[in-house]
Inverse folding.
C-alpha cells in the first residue's frame, strides 16, 4: 500500500464530503480506510460530447492518484444517463441526443480514458510495481437489464420528494422561466443507483466528481445508507476556471478538449504555458504528480526569472505528455519552436499538418519553382499584394520569408533558407497576414 502522504494528498487535493458535510473526523476515517486496504472508487463522465475537457481532467488525475496509491479506479461513462441529462449547473434542459451520437461519444470517451491511463503508466509511473488496472464501464450495461416497474418498486421508494426537491440544481431550475422536466428531475435517482450498483458489485465506497456534483453524490450516499446501512464517501474536486473566474467547459463555450481533433496538442500545451504566475503553484499541485518538495523548488526557481515561464513550461510538458503522449508533446514543442523562434530549421521540421494548424488562417498556394525566382516574383505569384504596393512594402521591411525580413525585391530565393527542405515557404506580410507556399518542381 502507498505511503500515507500520498493518500492524504488524494483527500486534500479534492474537497471532502460525507453526506454533504465536511469534518475532520470523516476525513480521518477516509484516510484510515485508504491506508489499510485496497479500495474501489469511481468517477462518472456523461458522453455529452465526443471528448473530455480540462474540467474532467482534474477528476481523472485524482483517480490516477488513487491508482498510484494502490486502489482500483472505476471510470464510468454514462451511456444511459446521457439520455436523461444532468441538470446540475444548467439554466435550461439539454438538447436530446440520439442514440447513435451517444454511442459514438461513449466509444470516444472510453478511448480517451484508456489513452490517458496508458500514457500515465508508461511515461509517468516510475516505479517497478504494477498499478491496479482501471475499469472503464458504461452504465447502459446494467440499465438494459432492469425493468421500469421493478426499478421504481425496489429503488424509487427509497427517495423522498422533499429531499429531491430541496436540491440546489432543482430549486434553481424550478425558479427559472423554463422549469424542469420530470426526466431531468429523475437524474439524481439514476446517478445514485449507479453508485449503489458499483458498491454491490465492486465494493465501491468512494465517488469522486466536480464540486457541482455534490447534490447527486448526496443522493447516492443516502440511497446506499438507506438500503445497506453502510457509510460511503464522496470527494469533490474544484471546478477549473479562467483568469476571470468563469468555468472552463463545453457549456461555457471555452472548453480545452483532451482529444487532438478538437484541441491540438500544440494548443493544449500553449494553454498551460500561458497560465498567470499567480496560478502556477496551484496548477503544479492539481495537474502533476510531482512531490511537494519538488513543486516548491520549481516555484522558487520560477520566481527568480518569471519571464522565462519555467514553471508554466514544466506543467505544460507533463500534462501534454499525460494527455497526448510522446508524439503529441514533440509536435507541440516543434510547433512552439517554429512559431516563436526565428530558426529556419524549426520551420523545416514541421509536417504539412502542423504548418496548416499553426497558420490555419493562412492562404495556401502552390507555385512552380524555377531558378532565379526573386522575392518580388514570390510576392506577386502568391498574390500577397497589388504590384503598385509591392516595392513600397518590401523596401519598408513589411515582407518576411521564413521569419526573416526581406527588404530587397530582387533577392533570389535560396534552397534551404527561403525554400525549406519540405518544399514549403512561409510568407508573412505585416504582423498577421500569412501565406503558405508549396513549391512544385517542374
Amino acid at each position: 500500500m502507498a505511503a500515507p502522504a500520498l493518500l492524504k494528498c488524494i483527500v486534500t487535493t479534492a474537497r471532502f464530503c460525507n453526506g454533504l458535510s465536511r469534518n475532520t473526523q470523516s476525513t480521518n476515517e477516509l484516510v484510515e480506510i485508504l491506508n489499510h486496504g485496497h479500495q474501489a472508487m469511481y468517477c462518472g463522465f456523461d458522453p455529452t460530447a465526443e471528448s473530455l475537457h480540462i474540467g474532467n481532467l482534474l477528476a481523472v488525475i485524482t483517480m490516477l492518484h488513487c491508482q498510484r496509491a494502490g486502489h482500483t479506479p472505476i471510470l464510468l461513462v454514462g451511456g444511459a444517463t446521457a439520455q436523461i441529462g444532468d441538470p446540475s449547473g444548467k439554466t435550461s434542459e439539454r438538447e436530446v441526443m440520439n442514440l447513435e451520437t451517444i454511442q459514438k461519444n461513449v466509444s470516444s470517451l472510453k478511448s480517451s480514458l484508456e489513452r490517458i491511463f496508458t500514457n500515465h503508466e508508461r511515461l509517468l509511473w516510475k516505479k517497478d510495481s504494477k498499478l491496479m488496472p482501471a475499469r472503464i464501464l458504461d452504465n447502459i450495461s446494467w440499465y438494459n437489464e432492469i425493468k421500469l416497474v421493478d426499478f421504481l418498486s425496489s429503488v424509487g421508494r427509497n427517495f423522498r420528494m422533499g429531499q429531491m426537491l430541496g436540491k440546489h440544481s432543482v430549486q434553481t431550475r424550478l425558479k427559472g422561466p423554463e422549469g424542469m422536466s420530470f426526466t431531468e428531475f429523475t437524474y439524481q435517482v439514476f446517478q445514485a443507483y449507479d453508485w449503489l450498483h458499483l458498491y454491490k458489485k465492486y465494493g465501491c465506497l468512494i465517488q469522486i466528481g466536480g464540486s457541482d456534483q455534490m447534490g447527486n453524490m448526496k443522493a447516492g450516499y443516502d440511497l446506499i445508507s438507506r438500503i445497506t446501512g453502510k457509510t460511503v464517501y464522496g470527494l469533490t474536486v474544484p471546478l477549473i476556471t479562467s483568469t476571470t473566474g468563469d468555468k472552463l467547459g463545453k457549456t461555457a463555450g471555452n472548453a480545452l478538449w483532451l482529444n487532438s481533433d478538437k484541441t491540438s496538442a500544440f494548443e493544449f500545451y500553449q494553454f498551460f504555458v500561458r497560465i498567470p504566475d499567480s496560478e502556477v503553484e496551484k496548477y503544479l499541485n492539481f495537474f502533476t504528480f510531482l512531490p511537494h518538495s519538488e513543486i516548491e523548488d520549481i516555484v522558487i526557481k520560477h520566481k527568480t526569472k518569471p519571464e522565462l515561464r519555467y514553471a508554466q513550461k514544466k506543467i505544460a510538458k507533463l500534462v501534454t505528455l499525460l494527455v497526448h503522449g510522446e508524439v503529441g508533446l514533440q509536435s507541440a514543442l516543434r510547433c512552439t519552436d517554429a512559431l516563436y523562434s526565428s530558426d529556419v530549421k524549426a520551420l523545416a521540421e514541421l509536417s504539412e499538418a502542423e504548418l496548416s494548424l499553426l497558420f490555419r488562417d493562412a492562404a495556401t498556394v502552390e507555385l512552380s519553382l524555377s531558378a532565379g525566382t526573386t522575392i518580388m516574383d514570390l510576392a506577386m505569384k502568391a498574390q500577397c499584394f497589388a504590384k503598385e504596393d509591392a516595392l513600397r512594402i518590401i523596401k519598408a521591411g513589411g515582407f518576411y520569408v521564413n521569419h526573416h525580413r526581406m527588404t530587397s525585391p530582387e533577392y533570389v530565393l535560396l534552397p534551404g533558407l527561403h525554400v525549406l527542405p519540405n518544399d514549403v515557404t512561409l510568407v508573412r506580410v505585416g504582423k498577421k497576414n500569412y501565406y503558405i507556399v508549396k513549391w512544385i518542381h517542374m
Q: What stands out?
A: The first helix runs from residue 4 to 13.
